[in-house]
Amino acid sequence: MPNMETENSSVSRAEELKALANEAFRAKKYSQAIDLYSQAIELNSQNAVYYANRAFAHTKLEEYGSAIQDASKAIEIDPRYPKACFTYQIFVTPVHKVKECEKAVKKLKFEEAIAVPESERHSVADSIDYRSIGMSPSSSFVSTQAAILAATATVVVAVVVMVWPAVATTVAGMVVAVLMILGAYWWGSCSGSGVFTKSRKLELEVEPQYSGARIEGDVITLDFVKKMMDDFKNQKCLHKRYAFQIVLQTREMLRALPSLVDIDIPDGKHFTVCGDVHGQFYDLLNIFELNGLPSEENPYLFNGDFVDRGSFSVEVILTLFAFKCMCPSAIYLSRGNHESKSMNKIYGFEGEVRSKLSETFVELFAEVFCFLPLAHVLNQKVFVVHGGLFSVDGVKLSDIKAIDRFCEPPEEGLMCELLWSDPQPLPGRGPSKRGVGLSFGADVTKRFLQDNSLDLVVRSHEVKDEGYEIEHDGKLITVFSAPNYCDQMGNKGAFIRFEAPTLKPNIVTFAAVPHPDVKPMAYANNFLRMFQ
């Protein structure tokens, strides 16, 4: 009898916890909801509802690996429970299909790449000359020489027809041949598809009525960047000619950097580290309002995930790249897991670029993202990376510096783990709640710091209620700079200011600011918009 009472008491308490978890979920406190559902499961592990509800909470935090596990467990307990089946069939199955499709696309592109001789393979950037003005088939421009030659040929034909009718057909044929060659030359020089040139000339003519920010010559100035940001704030576009210039100049700077960048902060100076921005341009402007614009005296490191989710990703990336061009030591940029083709295809950046710029920019951004460094070290003390640490001990900074990063992120290995891994409260290592990378404990962090004579790990990659979280006995800080993430999480944003020589972290938090009525994921894959 006492056992029956104890069991009833546990079931009753589990229901109370579920009710509290449901309230936390409705309040968008998803981490708290997961914790409460977990407590309910400890008391009653055979209730499919708890697992299904926890699966939904995991999806809100992008913990897809954990969502799959919970949905599978709910179906195992009750195969007919509709919510569990819905979670698995409507969410989990498409996620796997997307991954399979991405693998198929990668395979096709690889096969296409190896089918082309190395000598004929070119970077998309090599085919763009932003200094070319008005050179496209739709342009009214035709070279003066071609126009004169065509007019002369026409006159010759007319004279021959009148004076020597017998040879008119032969001469006319020769003239037509000449005109066809001229036409092929002109078209090829404009489109890049002709036999006379391999360079793609884009229509970059700046129209007289264009009133936006302009770059004079090759130098990107602070005045230009301020004007551009003001235009973006008012939902105006930057001319493609200047967008190409910004991205191409940034490309050249990034490709010269190592995969691990060392940053020296002089004594008495400060340095700011920001986490994920995720296309929240108006919150980026707020960071600059609070902490000042990037400059040599006020340098920043943005720690990956600049794009996707938020619907102003183009504005964010062009702003960050423009500051990099203006003063390379004013801003440092690190790659996140969202700086990749597969994520951009699903979470909105690719669609946004195609809508606001062009298909060529989709290719160009994908290439430039592969040039972003993977990690930074501040004064040989603070290791800054987007995701986290590794599945093996003994990884040295020299190993990170030696990574060949000029590719899409692989599905395993050091580069994958740098971009995807997360800390966990338990010691050791465990499977990733995302389904990619791994989870690592305080002991892993401690050994990595000791092996490399470092003091602190700073990483991003995870939304936090306060915009940051200090873990692993104070040796690891997560910083996230996208407040009210996706307009629904209710979290604060944060950034960290380090003062040399001590590099003691000073964490500043801030709330979200209003933005125009463009919903997050407005350009994203239709399926994922269902979950916003």
Structure commentary:
- This is Serine/threonine-protein phosphatase 5.
- It comes from Citrus sinensis.
- The protein is globular.
- The protein has helices spanning 2-26, 30-43, 48-60, 64-77, 82-115, 144-163, 168-191, 222-233, 240-255, 281-291, 313-326, 341-347, 349-356, 359-369, 397-401, 414-420, 442-451, 526-529, and strands spanning 260-263, 270-274, 300-302, 331-333, 375-378, 382-385, 422-423, 429-431, 438-440, 456-459, 468-471, 476-479, 493-499, 504-510.
- It contains 18 helices and 14 strands.
- Residues 93-98, 133-147 and 184-202 have low confidence and may be disordered.
- The longest helix has 34 residues, at 82-115.
- It has 532 residues and is an alpha/beta fold.
- Helix content is 47%, strand content 11%.
- It has a six-stranded mixed beta sheet with strand order 1-5-6-10-12-11.
